[in-house]
Write a structure and sequence with these properties.
5-stranded mixed sheet; about 25% strand; about 160 residues; 7 strands; Endoribo_LPSP/chorism_mut-like; alpha+beta; 60s Ribosomal Protein L30, Chain: A
Length: about 160
């Protein structure tokens, strides 16, 4: 049985909590080769999200060599924010988003071993904004490299409530 969530961010709705964090959902740019989300039945699969802000990749490098843990955590939060934006595109309203599963890919040195600490930052953001609907199953994976030499990529599976 999961433990109750501490209510660290004040607000009655997910939108109010997002605003209380000083954040707003970005507008996601489309590409020729993929869509931001695909719905199959009641499940919504989101394309992998990188830590872009205003069209600019916020970091490059390998965690444990070029990128410190704290920087990787901040990049993971930005990638999770982008995932929330894709989820809202899919369901139409932040209040309807429920995160089911998150995969966090961390480009890291073989001896880094703290991929879960990078992923925790993304998980925390989702729970801060969505409350219980942000709680999810999760996998954190260390990889040799990611697109555009980014340190973090996040993939999410969600549903509408």
């Amino acid at each position: 049985m999961s433990q109750p969530l501490p209510q660290t961010v004040k607000g009655d709705s997910a939108s109010e909590r997002l605003q209380a964090l000083g954040l707003k959902l970005p507008v996601l740019a489309g590409t020729t080769y993929l869509v931001p989300h695909r719905t199959v039945g009641s499940t919504i699969h989101l394309s992998g999200q990188l830590p872009f802000k205003d069209g600019e990749l916020l970091g490059q490098g390998v965690v444990g060599r070029d990128v410190e843990l704290e920087t990787a955590q901040e990049l993971a939060r930005h990638a999770a924010l982008n995932a929330l934006a894709a989820a809202v595109q899919a369901v139409g309203d932040l209040e309807r988003v429920r995160i089911v599963q998150m995969l966090v890919f961390v480009a890291s040195t073989p001896d880094f071993g703290e991929q879960s600490k990078v992923a925790n930052a993304a998980s925390e953001l989702l729970i801060e904004v969505l409350g219980e609907n942000g709680r999810h199953a999760r996998t954190a994976i260390g990889v040799a490299g990611l697109p555009l030499n980014t340190p973090v990529e996040i993939q999410v599976v969600c549903t509408a409530v």
